[in-house]
Write a structure and sequence with these properties.
about 475 residues, alpha/beta, FAD/NAD(P)-binding domain, Fumarate Reductase Iron-sulfur Protein, Chain B, domain 2, 5-stranded parallel β-sheet, about 20% strand
Length: about 475
């Protein structure tokens, strides 16, 4: 590990690139959960009881028939297994990599109560979807084909998981879909917001390519709502609109020192890492403090360590049981050398132009369960601070829509319909108990697509 001054971008601050060699970085950012071999997949599938009314299916937001696809893997029918998965979840490949299976399907597996080890549902799902995507990339017949074209046109705003799932479902139904996205690449958080070690070998783009291969979907990148087009224009030019823009803004800490050099949003840090051609060029602090308790905080903290940071502390204002990051993610972070400190409320960031330390007030819950400061201040030295305290909806271009209480989400019904006729929304931007899970966003997009399809079918009086 090199700590020489010539490698430091800010020697006095401690932020530097090239802390690890290319070989070390390759090891650090290798696939965190390597795929199962064919033999291992058969053995893993044999542990499934193929439960009737299986609890794992109920725990999956997209309702994948898990016993069915696992049985097919055991029988050597990987194509059939992939069909079971991808017909319910067109982004099943990514979800097999990033889903918190420990609290979803695997957490509900009856095997937990028998021998303490669930069936490896996530790994088996990846085994089947990777197999099918590889076959199609080599020229095999596609798993799905579009029905006859309807002549209807649907606009999808946002090429993240919700938008892509909606577009794929609508295209299969024969509609023509135009997807407008503000970024250079499609994929949304799958491309820009997930830790690099969870989705190696440019998988997000490979999955998008597979998804688009059915035809009927046109991508329009670099197009931002409110800047390059308006909702009114889309409503005029298209028969229906789906909004899946996610949460493009980030919350501020609102404390002194937040503008110091070395303080940045964790989502930007993760996106920069995901898009880097050479990880050795990425600067990281020697002492990094990550503030937050969700998946973004965990990913930012772990990747700071993997880039060569010597000390990484993840500070959360409540206890670990309150963190939105799962127990498995928290344990993984600890295994990677991240120190998680609880009940720490940030009060100021100190430094002379650049970060030197973060001051926290110890916190506790009062008798009514309200978080209160104790008055005890603790100072943690840092040269880099990553803020991961949540994202927020950017309202530009959404003025005509009714928002949920506080304006934090777009108000929608169970099918994703908004207050405007012919407009639906889903994923993190929508306010029906939305979470930051890829799989939930996929389900939102899928359900909205079915509702849009019904809506278009009912418009018998409208010219195609």
């Amino acid at each position: 590990m090199s700590h020489s001054a010539k490698n430091n971008t800010r020697a006095t601050q401690g932020i530097a690139a090239g802390r690890l060699s290319a070989e070390e970085l390759g090891c650090q950012f290798a696939d965190v959960a390597p795929p199962l071999s064919a033999n291992a997949a058969v053995i893993a599938s044999d542990r499934c009881h193929y439960c009737y009314d299986a609890p794992c299916v109920a725990a999956c937001p997209t309702g994948i028939d898990i016993p069915s696809f696992i049985r097919k893997i055991g029988n050597g029918n990987l194509k059939g297994a992939a069909r079971d998965i991808l017909s319910a979840n067109p982004l099943g490949g990514m979800c097999s990599r990033v889903c918190p299976t420990e609290i979803l399907c695997e957490g509900a597996c009856v095997r937990n109560h028998q021998d303490g080890e669930p069936v490896q549902i996530g790994a088996l799902q990846r085994h089947a979807t990777d197999f099918q995507m590889a076959r199609e990339a080599e020229g095999a017949a596609p798993l799905f084909r579009r029905t006859s074209e309807t002549g209807r046109k649907v606009a999808v705003i946002g090429a993240g998981p919700a938008g892509l799932a909606c577009a794929h479902t609508l295209a299969l139904a024969g509609h023509d879909v135009s997807v407008f996205d503000s970024r250079e690449k499609p994929g949304g958080l799958n491309e820009y917001g997930i830790a690099a070690y969870k989705t190696v070998d440019d998988f997000a783009q490979k999955e998008v390519a597979w998804l688009l291969s059915i035809g009927g979907i046109e991508l329009k990148q670099g197009q931002q709502l409110g800047r390059d087009f308006t909702l009114d224009a889309l409503r005029h030019d298209f028969d229906a609109v789906f909004i899946g823009i996610g949460l493009g803004g980030t919350h501020a800490l609102k404390i002194d020192g937040e503008a110091l050099d070395g303080v940045r949003d964790a989502v930007d840090f993760i996106a920069q890492l995901r898009e880097a051609d050479d990880l050795a060029t990425l600067p990281v602090g020697r002492r990094v403090v990550v503030i937050g308790g969700g998946n973004t905080a965990i990913d930012a903290a772990v990747q700071s360590r993997k880039l060569g940071a010597e000390h990484v502390i993840l500070a959360y204002r409540r206890g670990s049981a309150h963190m939105s990051a799962t127990w498995a993610e928290q344990e993984f972070a600890r295994q990677q050398g991240v120190t998680i400190v609880e009940w720490m409320k940030p009060v100021r960031i100190t430094g002379d132009g650049a970060v030197e330390a973060v001051e926290f007030e110890r916190a506790a819950l009062d008798a009514n369960g309200v978080l209160q400061g104790t008055g005890e201040i603790e100072r943690i030295e840092a040269d880099m601070v990553l803020k991961a305290i949540g994202q927020k909806l950017l309202p530009e271009g959404l003025e005509a829509l009714q928002l949920s209480a506080g304006g934090v989400r777009i108000a929608v019904d169970a099918d994703g319909a908004t207050s405007l006729s012919g407009v639906w929304a889903g994923g993190d931007c929508a306010g029906h108990g939305a979470t930051d899970l890829t799989v939930q966003a996929v389900q939102d997009g899928k359900l909205a697509a079915h509702a849009i399809d019904r809506y278009l079918a009912a418009q018998t009086g409208k010219a195609a």
